[in-house]
Amino acid sequence: MSWPSVIILVPAERRMSLEGRIRAFDLVPDPATDGERLHWHGYSYCFDLSGGILTDYEADELEYVTASIGEPYAALVSCQSMDAARVFLRDVLPGVDGLVDTNHFEILPTAGFLAVMNGHPGWDWRRRPSTDLPSALDDGP
């Protein structure tokens, strides 16, 4: 299976804040992708911070994002593994007011994404949507 990736979406006026959080990890240019990369805590990551990933969105997806957060800025984060994704996102997402696109048919508020990830530590959003997971409020196993 391919590297897990997410798209972090924030209002365009918060672009510098999100980029600053990500660039604080000392990214290096990646000539092979025209993006940037990072080796951190034994994991590898690739980033596209150009915002250009928005051109891949369907009209209805972009409409939903815009209705939710206004004019968006998007950062694509590709991670070597699900463990790598969880480590990075748990470090970067707290306090980010925006959305996370799982690249697998779900766009969740960042706080909701973190809540699901923390409530279900083994969650693989590539294989199972958050709506299929038991709620923390459920009484059953």
Protein described:
With 141 residues, this protein is an alpha+beta fold. Helices cover 29% and strands 26% of the residues. Strands 2-3-4-5-1-6-7 form a seven-stranded antiparallel sheet. Strand 3 and strand 4 (43-48) form a beta hairpin. The longest helix is centred in the middle third of the chain and has 11 residues, at 59-69. The two termini are 29 Å apart.
Map the helices and strands.
Elements: E1 5-11, H1 15-23, E2 28-30, E3 35-40, E4 43-48, H2 59-69, E5 72-79, H3 82-92, E6 99-101, E7 107-109, H4 110-119
Antiparallel strand pairs: 1-5, 1-6, 2-3, 3-4, 4-5, 6-7
List the main descriptive attributes of the protein structure presented here.
single chain, 141 residues, alpha+beta, 4 helices, 7 strands, disordered C terminus
Q: Spatial order of the strands in the main sheet?
A: 2-3-4-5-1-6-7
Return the structural class: alpha+beta
What letter string, H or E per element, gives the SSE order? EHEEEHEHEEH
Shape: globular
Largest sheet: 7 strands, antiparallel
Mean pLDDT: 90
Termini separation (Å)? 29 Å
In which range does the helix fraction lie? 25-40%
* Count of helix runs: 4
Low-confidence sequence ranges: 136-141
* Cα-based radius of gyration, to the nearest Å: 15 Å
Total strands: 7
Strand content: 25-35%
